[in-house]
Amino acid sequence: MTYYIYIENDAINGAGQAVLENENCSNIEITQDLFNLYTNDPDKYIWNGSEIIENPDYQTIIHSREIQIEKNQILEELENLDKKRVRAICENEIKDQETGQTWLEFYNNQVLELRARLNSLS
Amino acid sequence: MTVSIPYSLVPGSKAKAEEVNANFVALKNGIETLDANKANKDFSNLTASEIDAVKETIGVTYKNIGEIVYSTIPLTDGGLHLLDGALIRSGAYADFVNYIKNIYLTDAAPNIFCSEEAWQTSVNTYGECGKFVYDSENETVRLPKIDGLLQGTTDLSVLGNLIQAGLPSITHTHTRGSMDITGKFYVRGYKTASETNTNGSIYEPGGAFSRSGNSTSGAYAVGDSSTKYQYTMNFKASNSWSGSTSNNSSVNSVYGNSSTVQPQTVKCFIYIVIANNTKTEIQSNIDDILTDLNAKADLDGTNMVQSVKHFDSGWVKSTYDVASSVSLNNSSNNYNLSSYLPDDNYCYEVIGSVHGTTGSTSGDNADIHIGSSVVDATYRVACAKTRASSSVSWGGSFVIPIGTDRIISLGNYSSNSANVSNFRIFAYKRIGTNQ
Q1: Do A20 and B322 touch (CB under 8 A)?
Q2: Which ipTM value was assigned to this complex?
Q3: In chain A, N or C: fewer CB atoms in 10 Å?
């Protein structure tokens, strides 16, 4: 089995067993191991103009991904809180009789915390 | 074999015991001699007609592999093949292929072979080729293609050589024969006593000669001194050419009957012997096939290798990663499946799937199409669009015919980025030769 990494516009754009026949594209023959590593995480390798090397910025990319994952989780929680806050406005009930805190205030506090965390990630 | 009985017993007469015994002994000896001959396969006592009868009974028509057989009627013998340039495969004709292979490998007669390209060129140029083509990879032999005359030789190095039609150069000596060109004219004149020069005129030119024009300028006087003429005398051979230059009775009536040298012939088929015990070989193959079928009778198929694992009407299961981790943005990629599909001139259908994600910008759109030269277009297999700032997954499967160019195209026809995680094919099936 022969495997290739495709070079397009001086950068890697995919890998496979078929030869890519587009103009201005190159097919760099690679091992099956490298094919598996690349397809498992394409950001791990780059084309330096003459060969395929490990991406020196790979750790930065990993960190960015983790941040992005956390951002997406926060955004998802905010989406859920928005629904809860709409319900809280409509029903306008007291959550804590002792403090007099409403459900809307309770959710608003959570939103503020999440937004602060989101801003810190940006 | 004749057994002689010593005594002839006459009906009605009393037989003597010793005569009867002598007859039985003679008969016994004859039988024992016959048995001994049979045990030693000594058929020398068989007559020619008996031998022919035996041959006819057992159907002996032995011929050597490679022998040429001419026939003015079509022959149906499985051991014969027309010299028509056909490709002979091994199997039933293993003896023939192996015979040719042995000549090829031992270099015993290298000049009887040529390349496939040279063979085709010869047939295209001259209509025939006397050489064999041996394909060691596929174990095939291409026969010579001969529909002309065959010529004998004692030179091994020229076997199968094609000698083009030709004639010796022509030299020709031509004699005048009876041809003649004649002509004459007269010159009439006189000379007076007082004149120094002779005066005269051209008169009655004939044959190849003729007279034209006249002039008084610079001519000698004719008659009296007041009139002067000068004529031009012409010579033209055709005015007098008569007779013949040669005798054409030697020209043969067959000239012009053919565009090349062609003796009178009778057309017939030319066969080559490619098997001399065909029935036995075919029977052996049938036995082999039956053995294979018996082994597959339970339809288990576990002993089949991956490359020949057919699971339905010709579908062959074989997974192939066409491409992975590809980014497409209003663009398409052409992938060549030559390393996946069989190397022949047939078209194939493939079963595959493709999946991935859109870009992560709100509104990013993936509009994924598959195409090939057979469908002469692309068709959509998946489509997805984001509504927020995060990627959306998309995916689709397809069955598509692939042409002999073996190209399959994958495109994203939206103006947004789409990522192809996996583009895979899982099986293929031959569907024909036409696109």
Answers
A1: no
A2: 0.73
A3: C
